[in-house]
Amino acid sequence: SSHASVLLPNGKVLHVGAANTSAELYDPATGQCAATGAMSQTRWREWTNAVLLTSGKVLVVGGTEVSGIPNPTHIAELYDPATGT
């Protein structure tokens, strides 16, 4: 599965949106992925966007469906690397 990915200030990479509710952190130093937090609903990569904010949090938008139709603005979520949520 492909993901929307964002490089975090700590050097890890947040992956979201792989046709499920999971979020993962990739650590290039170890080459390992680990689960972190969870999305409130399934997000599809083809419609998901993620951007690092100046606060260090990640804004995730789009990637959801409403009645089977892609909806880019249905739900936005914030990921906080400090808390992993």
Question: Could you explain how this protein is built, in words?
Answer:
It is a single chain. With 85 residues, the protein is mainly β. The chain has no helices and 9 strands. It has strands spanning 4-7, 13-16, 20-27, 32-43, 48-52, 58-62, 64-66, 69-71, 76-79. The strands form 3 sheets. Strands 1-2-3-4 form a 4-stranded antiparallel beta sheet, with no helix packed on it. Strands 5-6-9 form a 3-stranded antiparallel beta sheet, with no helix packed on it.
SS element count, helices: 0
The order of strands across the largest sheet is: 1-2-3-4
The tally of strands reads 9
Query: Which radius of gyration do the C-alpha atoms yield?
Result: 12 Å
Topology:
Elements: E1 4-7, E2 13-16, E3 20-27, E4 32-43, E5 48-52, E6 58-62, E7 64-66, E8 69-71, E9 76-79
Antiparallel strand pairs: 1-2, 2-3, 3-4, 5-6, 6-9, 7-8
Entry keywords:
single chain; 85 residues; mainly beta; four-stranded antiparallel beta sheet; three-stranded antiparallel beta sheet; 9 strands; globular
Short description:
Helix content is 0%, strand content 56%. It contains no helices and nine strands.
